[in-house]
């Protein structure tokens, strides 16, 4: 069993689904699809709305899916009755319940969606599952794949190095939160906002709005300077937490703010020296601009 999983109780036939803490964004033909990995069945759960949007290019994928659910239920009761809801990041940065389906369920849904993208999408599903299982067997493959993906998107080697380090620091922080009794998911989000607000002056949602982002990863759209300051905030929070040993969300919130303040003070000092703000509107649409 993956000890880094949390258990979410869902009203479906399985009863319990063991999910990794991390929501992931996967790309199909440069279109974003939200996913979660189920370590028990070794399969992804996919946001059905995201898949419908990609396959149909509908201006209202929510309505399309709503109509399709009725059609599927009228025809056979399958697979609609098996669809469950999980919390995933919405466009406003908040965690909201959305319909999800595993690979098998998704393939059955795709059969009911006339789209020239259906066959390429099925191939993508198969490859995605294989890559994840390969990464579990050999974690270095995940790192290499991430590096290659960033390179293909046009990020510089310096930025990629900083980004990979930020992943390591974030993992240390969430491990410390877990040790302190903080619940993954919503409580992690609350503490992340505390850290972000303290160092940048913006919550995660406000920061994404500032950069004109929706479902994209905020860190993938930070400049070098922003990444370094965010890492300073998170590594400071981790260090203070280990030193003070807080218990639960409320005590950890105070630690998160003080950890963020360390980087916030550094940001203000740097801005004073530079004579300009370092919180940038630049995003990955122009990755070369992130080398600040």
TrEMBL record:
Domain Bro-N: 22-140
Biased composition range(s): Polar residues: 281-292
Region (Disordered): 242-292
InterPro entries per UniProt: BRO_N_domain
Domain of life per record: Archaea
Pfam families, A to Z: Bro-N
Protein name per Swiss-Prot or TrEMBL: Bro-N domain-containing protein
Organism of provenance: Methanobrevibacter smithii DSM 2374
Species lineage: Archaea, Methanobacteriati, Methanobacteriota, Methanomada group, Methanobacteria
């Amino acid at each position: 069993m993956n000890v880094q999983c949390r258990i979410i109780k869902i009203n479906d036939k399985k009863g319990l689904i063991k999910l990794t803490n991390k929501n992931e964004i996967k790309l199909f033909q440069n279109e974003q699809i939200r996913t979660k990995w189920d370590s028990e069945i070794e399969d992804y759960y996919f946001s059905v709305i995201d898949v419908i949007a990609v396959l149909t290019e509908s201006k209202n994928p929510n309505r399309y899916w709503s109509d399709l659910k009725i059609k599927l239920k009228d025809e056979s009761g399958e697979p609609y009755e098996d669809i469950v809801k999980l919390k995933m990041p919405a466009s406003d940065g908040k965690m909201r319940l959305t319909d999800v389906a595993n690979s098998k369920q998704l393939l059955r849904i795709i059969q009911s969606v006339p789209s020239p993208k259906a066959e390429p999408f099925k191939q993508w599903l198969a490859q995605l599952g294989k890559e994840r299982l390969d990464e579990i067997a050999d974690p270095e493959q995940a790192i290499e794949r991430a590096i290659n993906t960033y390179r293909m998107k046009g990020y510089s080697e310096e930025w990629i190095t900083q980004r990979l380090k930020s992943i390591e620091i974030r993992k240390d922080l969430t491990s410390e939160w877990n040790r302190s009794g903080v619940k993954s998911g919503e409580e992690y989000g609350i503490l992340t906002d505390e850290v972000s607000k303290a160092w940048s002056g913006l919550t995660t949602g406000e920061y994404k709005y500032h950069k004109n982002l929706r479902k994209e990863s905020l860190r993938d759209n930070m400049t070098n300077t922003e990444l370094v300051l965010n890492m300073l905030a998170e590594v400071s929070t981790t260090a203070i937490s280990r030193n003070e040993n807080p218990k639960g969300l409320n005590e950890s919130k105070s630690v998160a703010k003080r950890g963020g303040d360390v980087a916030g003070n550094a940001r203000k000092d740097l801005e004073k020296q530079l004579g300009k703000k370092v919180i940038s509107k630049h995003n990955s649409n122009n990755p070369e601009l992130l080398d600040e």
